[in-house]
Amino acid sequence: MISARGLRKSFGDFEAVKGIxxxxxxxxxxxxxxxxxAGKSSTMRMxxxxxxxxxxxxxILGMDPATxxxxxxxxxxxxxxxxxxxxxxxxxxxxxxxxxxxxIDRATCRERAHELLEFAxxxxxxxxxxxxxxxxxxRRLTIARSLINNPDLLLLDEPxxxxxxxxxxxxxDQLFRLKQAGVTLVITTHYMDEAEQxxxxxxxxxxxxxxxxxxxxxxxxAHSTREVAELRFGVGEHEALAEKIEDLGERIEVLxxxxxxxxxxxxxVVTAVLDRxxxxxxxxxxxxxxxxxxxxxxxxxxxx
Amino acid sequence: MALLEGIPxxxxxxxxxxxxxxxxxxxYKGAWKLFITGFLEPVFYLFSIGIGVGQLIDTFEFHGEAxxxxxxxxxxxxxxxxxxxxxxxSTYNVFFKMKYEKLYDxxxxxxxxxxxxxxxxxxxxxxxxxxxSAAFLVVMALMGLxxxxxxxxxxxxxxxxxxxxxxxxxxxxxxxxxxxxxxKITLAQMPLFLFSATFFPIEAFxxxxxxxxxxxxxLYRGVVLCRELTTGVITWExxxxxxxxxxMGVVGLLVVRRRxxxxxxx
Amino acid sequence: MGSxxxxxxTSPTPSAAPARPxxxxxxxxxxxxxxxxxxxxxxxxxxxxxxxxxxxxLTPLLYVVAMGVLLGGFIEADPDQLEGATSYxxxxxxxxxxxxxxxxxxxxxxxxxxxxxKWHKTFFAQLATPLAVRDLVNAYVAFVMxxxxxxxxxxxxxxxxxxxxxxxxxxxxxxxxxxLVGFAFTTLVFAYSAWLKSEEGFGLLFRLGVIPLTxxxxxxxxxxxxGPVLEWIARLTPLWHGVSLSRMFCxxxxxxxxxxxxxxxxxxxxxxxxxxxVRNLDRRLEV
Lengths: 304, 266, 287
Hints:
Strand content of chain B: under 5%
Number of domains of chain C: 1
Oligomer: heterotrimer
Shape of chain B: globular
Number of strands of chain C: 0
Number of helices of chain C: 12
Radius of gyration of chain B: 20 Å
Structural class of chain C: mainly alpha
Order of helices and strands of chain B: HHEEHHHHHHHH
Number of strands of chain B: 2
Strand order of the largest sheet of chain B: 1-2
Distance between the termini of chain C: 15 Å
Helix content of chain C: over 70%
């Protein structure tokens, strides 16, 4: 569906994407992970065929965005990071008119619009103004709109940013159903739980490059341990204590408020710590997540 | 490949323009009060300046013929309201849609191109403007302010004025970065409106350079063209005005297309 | 308010029936309430005054040149036809400045007021401090009036050398009457904007209010040219009272009884506008 070789994007002197290779197959859910400024959105805009490729090769659905932009866009669904709904139109017309932009005939457009209102669970808001919708409803409308043309490939840029937990779960469910229906999904996110929930395969991007690639499980196996023991001591003690228990895990990370000990057997670490006469204020043993991978690969300092 | 059914090839330019006009029509349907009142502004000016101030003035000479003041001002109002309408549509409205509503970004996620957007917006503006111009012409005719059947051609003339300014103003808007820049638009709009021989004859500028400068400005060409048509005094100048405005519009359109590509497709 | 009535009869708790929260008059003195917003408005002024130059000075100046000087050149200077003015320029300047005071007052109290309520929600932020609704209205009106008064003053000063004023003291009184026009329109339009839900209403206000008032309130031609019926309608508009005052003082043809009438009308409108503005803003901010 998507094939990129040495894909680059630069804005003047600034290079946002520094040569990436990506292959997305039909029917899979593919994720781009990365901190802000990693180049995810620039990549997405190139895939959406609205941003010219600076260099490298990009093929979407077998076509070249430089020459077949309109044809590619006709088969894509795009859900941008910020809702770009048409505030001057009501909810139904947002779907209907948008469908007409694709050249879909009136009757089909109307029918699809009704189906999608149903899908997004906003049928009763059909006549409402966009600005009267809640954040979650707007997001669902944006996603519904991106489906108006029955896309082969759905691009979702940070689909659940700013939503409350209920709305996120509703959305995940809907995206999962789309995947079941055979739609290929490409998702950018910085929520690790989202990536783990939705993506079959993903790449971690950092500073315009791909830092790692694989399924969520593979990435955790490759870049973290099975479990993590979190130990909290008094303020300022962590640095000194870390040296005393260095040997207990594969890796130790010192944070201002706690120590993270990476090990395949978290409970054993805690027992060993207590045996050495150390008394953490609190302990927690949890499974390693993509977040651990992500922070390992992209660092803990703020991106912007 | 059941998913691909019902997705036609990208739209032709004409079909794309039609869809964009439809979008604006759906939006505007709800704002009919604004639509009706938009027609009133030039009528108010005509009654106030043309009739009210006109009582203080005898007649003006135009191409050697003496015409009453109201007949002198009315075609100018036709031309300037086409100009004002086009300017408003293609500056403030386009800027708002581009920067705040991000409307064009969502359109570009579909098979529509920047050229489609420019054509669609301008076509819509012209359609709306021509309804106003036609209504104003009817008012003029009812008040006995048209002197010849040439006046019928004042409608296409007004649309031509609107086209020329829409294209150029939209091009200018693509360089705008903030609302503060719109002061510069006002800075161009007010002098054009007031000094294009709208309310007084071109002779008021004397015979020097100033007069030639004014004669070379686009709105003056539009005003004189309309005045020539409604008074029935056609000269070779009319043809000059038409060519001038056509060229202006086409150049504007080319620039818009290029600039939108640069702005939105990055 | 229906809900208040209902709670009077059915609610078991006596405290559930307060008439209205006592927000419009806050705990601060009116003066203190305005003084605390001085720095805010000073910052706004610093940020926006450049943009104001075009609309405040240049536009009316262009009108004076186009209508007063160039068109005026074609108009016979007959004081009998021009309400006592010795030239069309002298006739049109006091009217233009008065109607300019209106235009400025209206544009400063439409979109910016709605913005402070709906878009940047400045009023909500300000109301989270000891400031009361009344204080917000006062400071806002004071800011707009500063702009109107200074724009009119500069304008009158620029016109002084052109021999359009009959006496030296007339223009000063004329300026005060322009300020009065500003007050009346600022408070009334503020009240309208605080009540209005959608900005579409502003388009109507300009097209059905500001433009006809500018054109038919005697600024460009004597309202007697309108014919008896329309002339009387013109006399009922607030702007005419301002134009009348401004012109009487500038051309020194003063009918003191008319002056009293004009002033009373404008002051009354200002007071009504102020009360409505405070009331409407209070209702709007109470969410």
